[in-house]
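Researcher: Please generate the 3D structure of the following complex. Treat every line as part of one assembly.
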Amino acid sequence: MRAFAALVTQLGYTRSRNAKVALIADYLRAAPDPDRGWALAALTGEADFAGVKSSSVRTMAMERVDPELFRLSRDFVGDTAETVALIWPETVPPANDLRLADAVDSFAGVSRARAPTLLAEYMDRLDSDGRYALIKLATGAMRVGISARLAKTAFAQAFGLDVDAVEEVWHALSPPYASLFAWGEGGARPDPEGTPYFRPFMLAHPLEDGTVDLADYAAEWKWDGIRIQIVRVGDHVRLFSRGGDDITAAFPDIAGHMPVEGVFDGELLVRGDAQMGEAASFNALQQRLGRKTVSAKMLAEAPAFVRLYDLLIDGSEDLRLQPWHLRRARLEQRIGALPADRFDLSQIIMAQDFDELGRIRDGARDAAIEGVMLKRRDSLYVPGRRVGLWYKWKRDPLSVDCVMMYAQRGSGKRSSFYSDYTFGCWTEDGELVPVGKAYSGFSDTELKWLDKFVRQNTVNRFGPVREVEKSLVLEVAFDSIHESKRHKSGIAMRFPRISRLRRDKPAAEADTVQTLRALIT
Amino acid sequence: MSSAPHWIEPHPHGIFVRPANAWIDPSRPVSRALITHGHADHARGGHDAVWATPETLAIINLRYGRYPGEKAVDYGTTLDLNGVKVSFHPAGHVLGSAQIRMEYQGETVVVTGDFKRRPDPSCAPFELVPCDIFITEATFGLPVFRHPPTSEEIGKLLAMREAHPEGCVLVGAYALGKAQRVITELRALGYDEPIYLHGALEKMCALYADHGVAMGPLLPVAGADKADLKGTIVLAPPSALADRWSRRLPDPVTSMASGWMRVRARAQQRGVELPLIISDHADWDELTTTIREVAPKQVWVTHGREEALLRWCELHQIKARALALVGREDEDEG
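Model: Done. Output below.
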């Protein structure tokens, strides 16, 4: 438990992604089985103990600590697990000899009634970092700021494996991942055959300034939903997001309606109004993301469907090493067997040449279209981004002139710089209201200048936030703009970034909220 | 409490000792003041007559200028102020810090100012002074505050420096007390490399050295090459941690020495990567142990998390009350 507790504590104080990966990798290399497997499960959010609830933790604490002193402490610390870890009375120095795997075995079998007693026994054996890590593990809420993907990356780095190869087998395995670690240490790669497992996505490079020959490349719309992989093996259907997260539970309206065995690649969208392709904006889709389960009301109001791009595996035949045009032909054959209200085909855009394609792209005003995809007709389906195979050619961004209103310090290397800016536009009454926030798009030199501007023009401080003199115009570029009830201005930008500093422009000449509203798609 | 006014009167801006016509650590100018130690929330300017230890007066002179009517009182010397017997006793908080003991008409009162019990190589150790009324601070008056052994925390600092030879460890430490404590604790563990200082710490470190506290080699960051700072320990006031000043340092690991570092969110809010739980205040166990050992008839709590300490007194059947003093406690201190 000691090494795991140290890892959890260090992760809490580490901001850089690479440093986090290195910490986890070091732990995974050094810790024994099956402890490290359980640790990995905890970090990827796959450790769950039905018998242990946060109420068990509270009940346990109340038996050892005066409830009033506990309440005052909890109010100050702000986190129940941490409060318990810090306040737990140590009558003798704790032996700190609990083994992670033993604790996990006990948690797995414990009843709700006995959970507080079991936890208390463990608390007596651990020091404060150990108590903290164990409570977080037991209640399944690590919150150390790492995603499942980052933990898998760390595993791959620890054993010199390719993270995509790890992704492929991940969903076929379960904690404590004995066969995964055996593979890491030179054994055979676990065989995921017969389970609906994830295949890493093929991704596209941005098409910067070049052109491509449409004789070699096919063009498709780039839909603004989320990339999704649908896997069916036998009766098992799984949906995976781009990062390999299993999102099956959030979309039963898709998972329950895939009749064909195989692996499909497509874009998950929700039905919109009478727009081209009948797909609503990304905003509508967001309402359905991040939910563990979904209500009947959500299913009715925002029904999902998938616009298919590719067919990786047909039945049990792997097509990934066949050229795109053959896979596409196979996809077109299969589409007829799929329910039309849940699945359709991403259409190929017909254009004489690249210039005409450009005109078609610029003419597309659909909210669900981000731009155009260009796929080499002979491209194999290879994981990751490979130069020359697939390109994304986004629509030119929209831009408006806004006024800087507030600034906040960044994190990591930027922690001494005011690098996060809230900007606003004018209302009809001549009031400036915030319309968005951006922390990218500028050069290092511009950042230095902006930082200085903030420091010299601060008119108010609210904790870490500085309000600045409303004098600096920022040209803000963004991909699209949507209605939003969460923002005072009633609008939300997608991918806003600072494209230019308009030091030449008086603040009064910045754009109005009305101008922004006219750009809503 | 009895309804008759006591000879010691708590007011929002200080404790008034009526028969002596003197205030303890008043936060506004008065004619007669008794000062426990040199931190800004206890030692304000503008008083006429001031009694304090020689070290505290030296610190005040350095920070805020001279009081015209200053009167140095050594630890253990008894004064008579209009029939109140007053003496100063080490509080173990910072150099010169004192508890003030007062005796009047057979009743003894001790005001701790700020104090700690664990050893500190940069100041005299706390002295246990028996009394009837014990007026204590409660900065860390919650049972979650238990400071670990100082050598463990200093060990973490040395290990981080060892593991980070291409960068430096930047330790945020309050300019009076904490910075000198960290330096002397490092020396106590045998670290004899030069320690680099932010300009705001230099004078106070020199004052400590003048008072016989062995600080070892200290160098200013100003004027040092970035390359010279590789593999070193740098001390700065907490406000400089995320300031532009830190850009001159080679890839610093941000650390902070404070009792508040016991709480993760406190460290994370400040972007601290290496929290060091080193405090110049008593932790919960020290506070409660001290109350038990002093065994007063009453406990009065001046500032901090007084609610929890009052609750503890209630659970242990000790008569206690809170005094709401204003303007105490600096977030960076502790």
